Known about the structure:
Residues 52-187 form the Nudix hydrolase domain. By secondary structure, this protein is an alpha+beta fold. The chain has four helices and eleven strands; from the N terminus they run βββαββββαββββαα. 19% of the residues lie in helices and 34% in strands. A hairpin with a 4-residue loop joins strand 5 and strand 6. Helix 3 packs across helix 4. The longest helix is centred in the middle third of the chain and has 13 residues, at 98-110.
Amino acid sequence: MGKIRSVTKMTDNRFLNMYYLNAENRLGGDVNYYVASRASEAGQMKLAKKDENPDGVAIYSLYGEKRDKIVLIHQYRYAIDDFIYEFPAGLVEKNEDYHSAAIRELREETGLKLEPLQVPAYMEKPLYTTIGMTDECCSMVYGYASGEISTEGEEDSEEIEVVLVDRKEARRILKEEKVAMMCAYMLMHFITSPDPFYFLKCDEDRDI
């Protein structure tokens, strides 16, 4: 098993920092590794704390009287210098419950009100996003959205178009557009299931 010898913080940014890991591989050889983290200091990284508290949330919400539309955002991302389809998402603030974070983020990014569903805890378990690059982990919160779309809460660094997507449009987006991986997998489920939230009603004691 590999081993980390030391961790050095390389940047000092508010939302994301780069850390250098001086490590060794399973054979004792030297490894120089770089990790992006939401942690403000090395002692708060997942490798130090060994916890899986969510750094952020993504919101999978259905909209409309028939609950036949999914709420997405079409957002400009500097990393690709282009727009991409994603779920509304954001960071969990200090001492904030992640359900509260989901309600706040959906309101800020879309103007919509979120009614979170009560689901088995493991279905909202924090999961790692891109583990080869970052120790960030996020929870998915599921629910129903209502209200009128607004981007008044959009920050200066954000360019967001809120879209309410039916199954036909979801297919087109998957075929023709740039889509974040997490969002793409859920869209595949959305377009093939009569009840997009059916899997949330199943648990380990009952066949899916």
